[in-house]
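Data deposition worksheet. Section B asks for the primary sequence of the deposited chain exactly as it was used as input, without tags or linkers unless they were present during the calculation. Section C holds the resulting structure in token form. Section D is free text for depositor observations; keep each observation to a single sentence. Incomplete worksheets are returned to the depositor.
Section A, Depositor: J.P.
Section B:
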Amino acid sequence: MQTEHPTPSQAFPPWGVDPLVGGELHGRFQVLEAVSESASTPLYRALQLPLEREVALRVLTAPSEDLEARQRFFQEARDAARLGHPNTVTVLDAGSTDVGTPYVALEWLEGRTLAQVLASGPLPWARAVELARGMGRSLRQAHQRGVVHGDVTPAHVTLVTDASGRESSHVKVRGFGRLRPVAAESKRLSVPEITVSGSFHGAHAYMAPERARGVADARGDIYSLGVVLFQMLVGRAPFESEDPLELVFAHHKEPVPAFREVRPELSIPQAVEAVVRRCLEKRPEERFASMDAVLEALRDVGGAEEVAEPVRAPSSAHRTRTAQFVGAFAGFFRYWSRNARVRE
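Section C:
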């Protein structure tokens, strides 16, 4: 039986009971549990009826008279629905209830967010590079289709659990559509007015310097990816502060600390750090020109590990080949000697 969806003012009563949980939304979704407690767009785990398919259900709780919020909510859903990539969370459905409450259904993912994974500390550098590649592939396809993410953080990345229940290296990025679409990177168009109610629409610790000036384009996603990779490698973001304004200033003016300054005990190849530092250039034009260029650089540093051992010890490798040659020649000489005696 379909239950009446509460008005936004009733959705979160003072005593903390969420009337959506356990009921049906629009006769199409059985709401199972609340996943996040966002005041504006809470996320639920739900069953899509009658398919009984698990989905992630995001609901807009803004008042019905807030037309701008509703338009922005559906525009975000449309922008995200334009994307279709193995490393991007898929938009499955969107609509409004009978009382006009907007919702968006996304694919449900089993796994942990990157933020939950990083709560235990940094990752091995090769694994961090591998995860960054997956994120980069998702962002590259979005940029090619004229959409920037604008809010790349570990909380928006999920490490998907494989069929055996183990945590894999396959990542899925969500949160696309939070900014209006822009042209491809080569045209270098930007998006103004990225603030909502006077506050930045995104996590300040991962925000590119130009975001504070109301500019967001694909190169801003490159910067944010660099921040996330920095955190995966050393266990913290390059700049930390409880004050958002201090973080904004740090991204604008403070030099990015070297890995050894933060975690001197870690051994991370210089080539990996060089990729991160270029992503984190203050001036957008000094970063990688595109996400495709970032991925190429990450492929190069990932491949360096496979050839590192022969490169470090060329003389040893030469001696090994020489010994093999001498051994083969000696064997041939013994074989020739035996045959010579037989012929005699």
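Section D:
The radius of gyration is 27 Å.
The first strand starts at residue 24 and ends at 25.
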